[in-house]
Design a protein that fits this description.
This protein has about 300 residues and is an alpha/beta fold. Helices cover about 40% and strands about 10% of the residues.
């Protein structure tokens, strides 16, 4: 679902100097958590040095990963990373097919085993993008998450309309419909979802499935909205007010989906986030009316004092 790897032929990546230069800003902003993402963050040769720098400042580090190299890096992950979130696309066959990599599912499983051998209580969760290629396997995805002994799994629909994730151009209609559920898919999707909400009642109640039933049902509404069957689901989100995104080349965004507002290689992060342009953006942003926000799939809502 991500084109970051396609647009990174010149191997843009953050350096140790970039991370060290951020520390004053992170302190001033009261930063509590840094999520390392990619592409695959573990491919950056400085990854664990980044983690070490941040941990020394009592900033938690979480890792979003494909899981392919967890086994190789297990000991350092346990030492420097607070939590791992893996991408899970389906049961073994579906996951390997979508990843276009035979053995990807088993490598993910082996990595989880390797980490748990070091620390049996280490938290490993998953995110799954539900889309045209895997929605029929939704129950099997939950069973796969149990099989590889994840602590929790989260679901979201696919972003097909934005420039996020290094898309130089938004996907054209043909590319969108490779991922977007078709109108004909919706009836079957609805049946699968209704059954899921009943069969996996326990998993919703004990939070093995991270979303509530309402939020899970919103995945259907998200796809149905593309065909005018309903409005895009209402969402509460304060991501531009409580977090920021720093890309591989230093570009700063208020969240993954909105336009850049600066670069840490030319200006300090706290100055970028609190200049007149950034403040004006946040003052005027109405997440209920903004077109980017209305179609957003990845929203965040943190209340004051919320635990990270």
């Amino acid at each position: 679902m991500c084109d970051i790897w396609k647009g990174n032929h010149n191997l843009k990546q953050l350096t140790e100097d970039d991370i060290s230069g951020l520390l004053n800003s992170l302190h001033q902003l009261g930063t509590r958590l840094v999520l390392m993402s990619g592409g695959e963050a573990l491919l950056n040769p400085n990854f664990f040095r980044f983690c070490e720098i941040l941990k020394e400042q009592n900033i938690k580090v979480n890792l979003l990963s494909t899981g392919l190299t967890l086994k190789k890096n297990a000991s350092q992950i346990v030492k420097y990373v607070n939590e791992v979130i893996v991408s899970l696309d389906g049961d073994e066959l579906t996951h390997d097919s979508i990843r276009n990599m035979p053995g990807a599912f088993n490598k993910l499983r082996e990595g989880i085993v390797a980490i748990r051998l070091i620390d049996p209580s280490y938290k490993i969760t998953a995110r799954t993008v539900i889309h045209r290629l895997n929605y029929s396997k939704w129950p099997a995805i939950i069973e796969a998450a149990k099989f590889i002994e994840l602590d929790q799994i989260s679901f979201l629909p696919a972003d097909v309309s934005s420039h996020a994730f290094n898309r130089e151009m938004a996907w054209d209609e043909n590319r969108q419909h490779e991922i977007l559920l078709s109108f004909e898919d919706l009836s079957q999707f609805k049946i699968i979802l209704e059954k899921l909400l009943t069969v996996y009642a326990k998993e919703f109640e004990n939070n093995f499935i991270a979303e509530s039933r309402v939020k899970t049902w919103n995945i259907y509404k998200y796809y149905a909205a593309y065909y005018g069957l309903c409005s895009f689901p209402y969402k509460k989100c304060n991501a531009p007010w409580v977090s920021t995104v720093i890309e591989a080349d230093g570009t700063v965004r208020p969240c993954f989906f909105h336009e850049p507002m600066g670069n840490i290689r030319s200006e300090k992060l706290d100055i970028i986030l609190n200049n007149r342009h950034a403040i004006n953006f946040r003052k005027k942003l109405d997440v209920n009316e903004d077109e980017t926000c209305r179609k957003c799939v990845c929203y965040l809502q943190l209340a004051p004092g919320n635990s990270l």
